[in-house]
Design brief:
Distance between the termini: 26 Å
Order of helices and strands: HHHHHH
Number of strands: 0
Structural class: mainly alpha
Helix content: over 70%
Largest sheet: none
Shape: elongated
Length: 154
């Protein structure tokens, strides 16, 4: 039993600067998104127009959301609390009508990375690698937000 409590203490005592890590993840997402757009631009002749258009729009949507959240320094912890219906002190709150906006802003980069990875037919290892980095980076951002809410109760 003592081993379990020491493990929980180690998890709760992880030191990092949340804002700095999230901003770093968003900068990486912006760079990777721009790189994916560049690779899609060069792959226009290799894939069909509609597939190219769909992949380009998904990548652009991810870039726009990452840029908005980066430039305005928006905190994903608030969005996650609204989606889960909990306040900062742990009480339940009423979910607003526009919860889809919160969900879209929170999960869009990860879902876009998954869609780009699954639905590309490019025979380009760089594009596949960039989509993997896209998914890992956005997943790490989501993981930090869940960690902040559920483990640290921030």
């Amino acid at each position: 039993m003592a081993e379990s409590s020491s493990w929980q203490n180690k998890i709760q005592n992880v030191k990092y600067d949340y804002e700095e890590m999230v901003m770093l993840a968003r900068r990486v997402l912006l760079g990777i998104g721009a790189f994916e757009e560049l690779l899609l631009f060069f792959a226009f002749a290799k894939i069909g127009f509609f597939e190219w258009l769909l992949l380009t729009l998904i990548a652009a949507f991810s870039i726009v959301i990452s840029y908005v959240r980066y430039s305005r320094r928006l905190d994903g912890r608030y969005d996650l609390r609204v989606l889960l219906g909990i306040s900062k002190d742990g009480k339940s709150v009423k979910m607003p009508q526009d919860y889809a906006d919160f969900a879209g802003m929170l999960f869009c980069p990860f879902v876009a990375g998954v869609i780009l990875f699954l639905f590309n037919h490019l025979e380009n290892g760089l594009f596949n690698l960039s989509t993997i980095v896209h998914m890992l980076t956005s997943g790490a951002g989501l993981g930090m937000e869940f960690y902040e809410i559920f483990v640290l109760n921030q």
